[in-house]
Amino acid sequence: MTTAPSACPSASASAAVSSGARTLADPDTPFAVVDVHRVRRNVARLRARADRLGVVLRPHVKTAKSLDAAALLHDGSPGPVTVSTLAEAEAFAAAGYRDLTYAVGIEPHKVPRVVALVRRGVTLRVLLDSTEQATFVAAAAREAGVALPAQIEIDCDGHRGGLRPDAPGLPGIGRILHDAGCLDGVLTHAGESYHCHTAEEQRAAARNERDAAVAAAERLRAAGLPVPTVSVGSTPTAHAADDLTGVTELRAGNYVFFDLVMAGLGVCELDDLALSVVVTVIGHRPEYGWIVTDGGWMAMSRDRGTSAQPQDQGYGLVTDLDGTLIPDVVMTAASQEHGTLTARNGAVLPELPIGTRLRVLPNHACATAAQHQGYQVVDGAHGPAASAPVITAYWPRVTGW
Prior knowledge:
TIM Barrel; disordered N terminus; 2 domains; 12 helices; PLP-binding_barrel; Lyase, Ornithine Decarboxylase, Chain A, domain 1; Alanine racemase; 17 strands; alanine racemase activity; alpha/beta; lyase
């Protein structure tokens, strides 16, 4: 039995909406906030880059997992997207999206859900990197009487799965897929780019990502196999690539919201971070230099992605409710429902009475967003608010797998 994806607001968000909440001072904390102005700006930046590079942009919806956010990716039209779960694929297909890539390795139990979407007229590409996977995808396509487009994952940097471009088994996998009418192309992801701390390192990662994918495609073509799609992308390399000759499409997902990891790599500025979490001060421990909030790792996630960077940002940087950074105040510790704020670099903690609302900028937008069922939306284009920022919308998230 397949569990339908949830797209319902959390209980607190539903209560906030029904009670007529209009500002970030109203919903119970903690809750996630998205600045739609920053989202639009981030989306426009990468779209313009893809246009300059002459490739199709296939955004990854795994970060926001939101149909409302996705509507901004292609000017309101259901354009090509990448998904990380079949729940996302099903939700986006139901909303009219017909050009999807499921960028996680396929396994047999999930194939019937893929077949069901293909029979509804959805192009849903699956990903694989073994003869075993190619064989059961080809068999399923023949049994169902439909083409199941498949891309061969290429390992460009040893990050996760995939075949090296020179792997002996690559042409054989391509032949199995082609004979069943399923070979769609190759796909790679420069996961190690998340550890590239300079612009030149990121450009080198982008070149390596491109070269690996193109080399794999050329090997398949040399074996007489068609390779219509050559897909590359990660948020750092998508913003660093300067030549994508031989590539047909570019993928990225984190860029819609950005986060402290991306800011630490220099891919974006703090002012580009579109996601934050509103928390409330619930206590003080002056003997330890702590301010305690009601937002712990259940609100922020346990991701500590900046710990390996030159500047460790703890569990997140702290702003006031309007989004203005409070210098040198960091969420340095978190338990399930408690966050601990401390000062660094000799700073003095500000006076923040119990009941004060703050926003915390996350290390990893994907992980923090996953802690919430949806987003309260504000529009930073209106400038600093005279009071708490006005909530303009609520965007539910797709959940589940």
